[in-house]
Structures are given as structure tokens and as C-alpha cells.
Amino acid sequence: QGTDELLGLDKFTVDEENAHIVLDKTACAVCNDKPCLVVCPAGLYKLNDKGEILFDYAGCLECGTCRIMCHQLKQWKYPTGTFGVSFRFG
Ligand code: SF4
């Protein structure tokens, strides 16, 4: 099985009210490296046509990689209660 197929098995219960990861858009605007674009295994960080970071926390695997690679995040915490990812391995 490929990674995409396996990711497709996971179940996400998204807390629409509370983002568990919050970006600092001002910091993103002046960040040259933008490691988030390459390190997130779920590919949740993208660039729009203006070169700004777009981020959707809904598919987060809670791996913590962006927390380590980006020192500018306003917030990184695990989703509360029953929210977040449930890993299923097929
Ligand atoms: Fe991506 Fe992992 Fe950060 Fe979630 S915690 S946004 S899966 S790098």
C-alpha cells in the first residue's frame, strides 16, 4: 500500500471552532526558508499565488514536525478531547 492509500484510512474529527495549530502570518511573510512546505507529511502547508502560506489543520497527523521545524508558530497543541486523528492501518 502507498502512503496516500494509508493516509486515506485515517479518520479525522475536526474541531471546527478551535484550530490546534495557529500560524503567525506576519512571521510567515518574512520567512525565507518555509520548511513547513516540505516537512509536513500530510502536505498541509501550501503557497498561494501571492507566495503566502495557506494552512489547513483539518488533516493534521499530530506528528509535531512543524512544531520543531518552525519556530514562529503562535500555537501548537494537540486537539482537545475526542478531536483529531485516529490512525487506522488497514
Ligand atoms: Fe503537518 Fe505534522 Fe505539523 Fe500536523 S503536526 S501540520 S501533520 S507537520
UniProtKB/TrEMBL annotation:
Keyword Lipid metabolism attached: no
Domain 4Fe-4S ferredoxin-type residue range list: 19-50
Presence of keyword GTP-binding: no
Keywords: Electron transport, Iron, Iron-sulfur, Metal-binding, Transport
GO MF entries: iron ion binding; iron-sulfur cluster binding
Domain of life: Bacteria
PANTHER family, per database record: FERREDOXIN-LIKE, FERREDOXIN-LIKE PROTEIN YDIT
UniProt name for this protein: Ferredoxin like protein
Species annotation: Propionispira arboris
